Automatic annotation (TrEMBL):
Mg(2+) binds at residues 237, 251. InterPro entries: ATP-grasp (IPR011761), ATP-grasp_succ-CoA_synth-type (IPR013650), ATP_grasp_subdomain_1 (IPR013815), Succ-CoA_synthase_bsu_CS (IPR017866), SUCC_ACL_C (IPR005811), Succ_CoA_ligase-like_bsu (IPR005809), Succinyl-CoA_synth-like (IPR016102). One of its GO terms (biological process) is tricarboxylic acid cycle. SUPFAM superfamilies: Glutathione synthetase ATP-binding domain-like, Succinyl-CoA synthetase domains. The gene is sucC. This is Succinate--CoA ligase [ADP-forming] subunit beta. It comes from Rhodopirellula maiorica SM1. Keywords: ATP-binding, Ligase, Magnesium, Metal-binding, Nucleotide-binding, Tricarboxylic acid cycle. Transmembrane segments: none annotated. Binds 1 Mg(2+) ion per subunit.
Amino acid sequence: MVPQFALETYIFSFSETFPLCASAKAPLKSMKIHEYQGKQLFRKAGVPVLEGHVAKTADEAAAAFDKLGGSIAVVKAQIHAGGRGKGTIIDTPEQRGVVLVKSADEARAAANGLLGKTLVTIQTGEEGKVVNQVFVEAGCDIARELYLGIVVDREASRPVLMVSTEGGVEIEKVAEETPELIFKEHFDPAVGLDAFQVRKLCKKLGIEGAAAKAAFKFMKAICRFFVDYDCAMAEINPLVITGSGEMVALDAKITFDDNAMFRHKDLLELRDLSEEEPSEVRASDSGLSYVKLEGNIGCLVNGAGLAMSTMDIIKYHGGKPANFLDVGGGANAQQVTEAFRILLSDPNCKGVLVNIFGGIARCTTIASALIEASKTVGFNVPLVVRLEGTEVEEGRKMLAESDVDVINATDITDAAKKIVAAAAG
């Protein structure tokens, strides 16, 4: 549910929409897959990719090189994060996440340097991610490197295809320093990308001749793929044009909309739980929307918009949110109890703010759930509660007459000030 990719950062900049929470990640529900899995799907959809094989041991990597039958290949770490080519292995900074090899022995050595190690990239944070598998891919004659990505533009209510001449470069850097080099075309998901739109983009990218013909097929296919698979994002960086004018996806960073997975049961088999935050997986299994952040104030809120504004005002008053947690409109005692288990399992959590606006979920229901959760879990950090909405007076009375040790707040500002002070003290 975490948007964690370069393209999402550019299109839906959390720091622009919610400037006070610039360090947080927008809670977009999505399922990620590995590059090699994305390329398998690309191949089925008619999107050109190179031959490659996944390997989980160094010997498998060497065998993969021999199987490719070429004189050159690339060994790529498979983690759910971009920037692998410039990423480094902890304790072995000279080891990159993408390694060019010219023999089976070199492929074995490259895999040895990656498998089981922790790779740190611009998108993983300092903690990095453990590499459990590598992708050994054939080399090709690269004439040009481009960038291509697709997301759903919320304002336009339709997908947008973005391309740039700056392939192989972090799109955040391009967007910040040279945004004029990013070219966009919105398209109707029912129709796909029109031919005239491809011609416009080819002209801006300086593509002509055989490469333009290849671009027509490639861009049409990737846009159809995005729609057919209910993607939240599809990013190829770099997208290459070969010496013979072919267009090939040299990368595949794909996320799918969780809400559409009922239409793609087969895709669920591609999910790699080892790449996901355990607390987020646990929350998802309980029907909770949860994103772990780096602060020390836990947030339990009903409604995504309220959760975002809650994080904003905590930040405004000097605090740092430890999470985004939306229990939803139909929260029950079991879900609230599990929510507290997840919140309090974070050792960085020094206080919890419960900010509830009772609409579908009545304040009495939430108050009852809080009382039950306190008996089951036990609150070992300060708890600030702000209730508003349906049956609010009854809910407040229930908490006041209970044994739950809470700090009551009259409004969201009062709640933010009190939790920041309580967590600090």
